[in-house]
Design brief:
With about 60 residues, the chain is an alpha+beta fold. Helices cover about 30% and strands about 25% of the residues. It is built from two helices and three strands; from the N terminus they run βααββ. The mean pLDDT is about 95.
Length: about 60
C-alpha cells in the first residue's frame, strides 16, 4: 500500500537521495534547479509517497 503524506523535515535526506537516483547528481546544475536555489518548497502543497515505510516518490510545489 502506498501512503501520501505532507512533506516534512525528516523526509529531506530521502528526497535528495531519490532525486539524485532519478535525475543524477548533475541535476543541481540544471536551469530548473537554479531557479529554486535559496527557496523552500511550499510545504502545504508538497507531498511524499511512502511504501512499506520507505520514501518512493515526491511531488514538490515551488513559488515562482
Amino acid at each position: 500500500m502506498i501512503t501520501l503524506k505532507n512533506e516534512r523535515d525528516e523526509h529531506a535526506s530521502a528526497i535528495e537521495h531519490l532525486l539524485d537516483k532519478a535525475f543524477g547528481e548533475e541535476r543541481h546544475y540544471k536551469t530548473c534547479q537554479r531557479l529554486r536555489d535559496g527557496q523552500e518548497p511550499i510545504r502545504d502543497l508538497s507531498l511524499v509517497a511512502l511504501g512499506k515505510g520507505q520514501l518512493i516518490g515526491t511531488v514538490r510545489m515551488w513559488a515562482m
